Amino acid sequence: MPIVVAILCGFMIARFIPDNWQQWMVSIIGPLVWVLLFLIGADFGDLLVSAEALGKALHTALYFTIFSTLIPAAIIAWIYDHHMVSKRNIKPRQDVSPTSLWKPLRSCLVALSMVALGAAMHLLTTYTLHIHLPLPSVNSILIVMVFLAGIDLYRLELKRTHFAPRIFILPFMIIALGLAGSQIAAYITGMEWHNAMALVSGFGWFTLSSVMVGDALGAYYGTTALLIDLTRELLGIIVLYLIGIRYGYMAMSISGAGTMDTVLPIIKTNCGTDKVPQALVSGITLSLLAPLLIGLFLI
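Below the sequence we write its predicted structure tokens.
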């Protein structure tokens, strides 16, 4: 509930904030994400520095990625994109370049680096120096970041025509297929069904899912959620760059909540401007529902 309230407050308060202030506040979301990931690394440090525990989390994350991200994406590709593949005249856009891939990939690499730094600091201070550093609360940083994300939502200035009922089919398919796939992964890994659903309900929002799941279920589950959603974002970037022109809807389904911000420039360039409204609505829908679904399945 605090997360939902924070994002709604940010959205409503934004209309009373001058544009230049809005721009500045949104610009600090990136650095806050780095701080949050550093703190997550520190919290999960014991798990991340253990090869056996990290290997188990990676093994579990692999099954969830296959059944809750990749197989649903293949189904969505068959439903939405197969008619485009049959058009033999489709060619890659001339304005696609490797440089367009570097910025989002760099963000993912920075995210991984911040988690690793947090884990290294935990290892150094706890086991070598035997001291406990007073660090900010992960939850407090998350609430501030989500509040600023609400301001960013307001700045998107979506039109009413963007919210036609049919445009919501894609995000709800992503949710339904992802949750169904989580049950197959849960059966294989021996995980409880509601915990499996919580793990996949971040839809790529790794800073949110790792904190919420980690607080409720412990470091192992929090690390697994982080790996599932960070892998989702990395795969989304790669698929959008390589085959986004042919499989735009499939690529958007992999990217999940990231379609409203992180990967939106790639969608515009590689998939075409006609898919931007779908990307925005899908990303917003998944971002708003992620904290609700995670909280629901963690009850």
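Confidence is low (pLDDT under 50) at residues 85-94.
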